[in-house]
Design a protein that fits this description.
- Chains A, B: Keywords: DNA recombination, DNA replication, Endonuclease, Exonuclease, Hydrolase, Nuclease.
- Chains A, B: This is Nuclease SbcCD subunit D.
- Chains A, B: Belongs to the SbcD family.
- Chains A, B: Residues 262-354 form the Nuclease SbcCD subunit D C-terminal domain.
- Chains A, B: InterPro entries: Calcineurin-like_PHP, DNA_Repair-Maintenance_Comp, Metallo-depent_PP-like, Mre11_N, SbcD, SbcD_C.
- Two copies of one chain form a homodimer.
- Helices cover 34% and strands 21% of the residues of chain A.
- With 381 residues, chain A is α/β, with parallel strands linked by helices.
- In chain A, the strands form five sheets. A six-stranded mixed sheet of chain A has the order 6-5-4-1-14-15. A five-stranded mixed sheet of chain A has the order 7-8-9-12-13, with no helix packed on it.
- The first copy, chain A, has three domains: 2-259, Purple Acid Phosphatase, chain A, domain 2 (4-Layer Sandwich), CATH 3.60.21.10; 266-320; 324-380.
- The radius of gyration of chain A is 27 Å and the shape is elongated.
- Chain A has helices spanning 21-38, 57-73, 88-92, 95-98, 131-138, 146-158, 273-276, 279-282, 304-311, 324-338, 343-354, 361-380, and strands at 2-6, 14-15, 18-19, 42-46, 78-81, 103-106, 116-118, 121-126, 167-172, 174-175, 194-195, 205-209, 222-224, 241-247, 253-259, 266-271, 290-295, 315-320.
- Chain A has twelve helices and 18 strands.
- Chain A binds chain B through residues 54, 57, 60-61, 63-64, 68, 71-72, 87, 89-90, 92-94, 96-98, 100-101, 103, and chain B through 54, 57, 60-61, 63-64, 68, 71-72, 87, 89-90, 92-94, 96-98, 100-101, 103.
Amino acid sequence: MKFIHTADWHLGKLVHGIYMTEQQREVLLQFVNLVEEEKPDAVVIAGDLYDRSVPPTEAVELLDEILYKINVELKTPVVAISGNHDSAERLSFGTSWYRQSRLFIKGKLTNDFTPVHIEGVNFHLIPYAEPGIVRQLLQDDSVHSHHDAMKALIGEVEKHMDSSEPHVFVGHAFVLGGKTSDSERTLSVGGSGCVGSELFDPFHYTALGHLHSPDAIKHDKVKYSGSLLKYSFSEARQRKAVSIVEIDSNGSISVEERSLTPKQDMREIEGHLEELLDPGFFQAQKTDDFLKVILRDQGALIDPINKLRQVYPNVLHLERKMEQQDLRMREDYTTARDEKKSELELFEQFYNDMTTSDFTEEKRQIMVSVIEKAKREDGKK
Amino acid sequence: MKFIHTADWHLGKLVHGIYMTEQQREVLLQFVNLVEEEKPDAVVIAGDLYDRSVPPTEAVELLDEILYKINVELKTPVVAISGNHDSAERLSFGTSWYRQSRLFIKGKLTNDFTPVHIEGVNFHLIPYAEPGIVRQLLQDDSVHSHHDAMKALIGEVEKHMDSSEPHVFVGHAFVLGGKTSDSERTLSVGGSGCVGSELFDPFHYTALGHLHSPDAIKHDKVKYSGSLLKYSFSEARQRKAVSIVEIDSNGSISVEERSLTPKQDMREIEGHLEELLDPGFFQAQKTDDFLKVILRDQGALIDPINKLRQVYPNVLHLERKMEQQDLRMREDYTTARDEKKSELELFEQFYNDMTTSDFTEEKRQIMVSVIEKAKREDGKK
């Protein structure tokens, strides 16, 4: 039995003010092609189908389109759960009908722990839930942390497990050993958001969502597939893939990854403005990628973002990188203020910090007259 | 062939700050019972399933529950369209799956005018759409008004009509001859929102939604079912019902109405505060109904709303009714201002307008000292 594990589609995601819907559609169509080629027995989506509880209508239409292609056109069963970004209730709408064509969406956590059977494999669908919800649902006052909640839920799941069959757990959680990136909503305070990976020992494979990198955890059978796309610059160096999992009747597994490649990558470039605008540099690159630009220039720059966008239309973020020397100069400047330097001395310091030109005698004279004029005006008040 | 025509459920509706979800659920369960008894071949919902494009999750869960009972448990086909209150895109999600169990929801208007066939009858589902949308969809620049839009749409529908079969049109529009109430969103400016009922001549029955009264139009085969509940006090005297329509293979129809009766009615009561608070009056009434109270008292009243709510917990709106004499006194008061009466004269007039007591000499002396004190304080500034 073969299934594809994916997660964290985040449809409707805004990255630095840009809707990623078009990019998501492009990669999801690649994913549909992969399903067509691989002919898996199921597709598993481990939560965060949408980026928010009320996604934009374009995202709703995209999810409908993609699920239709996979489930109805390619007749591939789909199991999906809601993540912390989804609205459990809204994602639950219509699930009774979807089930008839083997589209199994578990939006809201309920007391029904019956697994979904596909080709001899049991899929245990546990949507994301806050510990308070789990405490109430299971009437178990000992549940305080996410770890407690998962432990209690898995206790319920185990009651429905036939040990002679293979079992796959589908969950959305921050499993210990994972690394976080900016685009994963911070859930853990003082470690209470973490779930120990040992809880998943009863399962032959655990298909996780929540962390966006397939390398977030090193474990032979508890795995994140990673997100559909890079959703923040902290993910710029992450691989983005889906996992093709083969599981035999004894529960032995083999996992193979397949990359997803959007037309536009999300990456960082770094250098002096002049270098980055040099055709010798940019002609070798995909200039329409989504970029974070780190400028090494130390002095003042006039409108660098617009200059950059002439060449790189999708600069989403610009940063300046201060060199060690520069940081020292900043300190000097701060110290200078403390020593009550004259206005002219302060300006000279500032000018030297911010530009690469000399503060000539001519410039000095101009500043002297400006400062005097400003002081006279101030005196009149 | 028999179907039940309903419309304007407005799930998630807030009436004077109160969510009607519980009342809606109660009446919808009555409706489900009616479906169970009548065993119709279809249920038709002519738009405004929800009250807004993003309904509260309770409303989403309620719609899911009710459609499940009707369509899956009672195995009754359902045809539904979106109204002006629904989000066409959000209501379209999942419709490809629903169709498999004969739940036909037409959320977004598309170029597909194929009717839904149920037991030999053709149902033509035309969701609510603004004229601009229709103009673009049909690439017909002559479409400006709702009437133009409906005419053009029906032109398309007629291309898919076999004249030997019975045809039912399902639409959501303000069809001429209808009366509006407060809770129907005003759409028409200068009559451009109205649609002439003659457009529906090609159909054996037209199941409309939008206007909330089953009496909104007097026509033998173009009909509003009316809304599920009374949704504003302007509907207090309306009947609320669903229509049971029988249609034979020649297209002959018979229509019978069935009332829906919520535990709590929405109605008006009118009288003097003292009368309304008299056990002899209120003991004969359902005091927990949703009420608009019209007070006939002419004088000042202390906290009438809270006094009323001791007896009638669900007073949603309170109005004072001015008698003819009172209106005249108001005019006198206005005139008085123009004539620059003294502060004391103005106050006396005001006191007489607002209370039923005499403005005694003692009261006059108090006001004289108050006015003098106020003037002294004003002079000090």
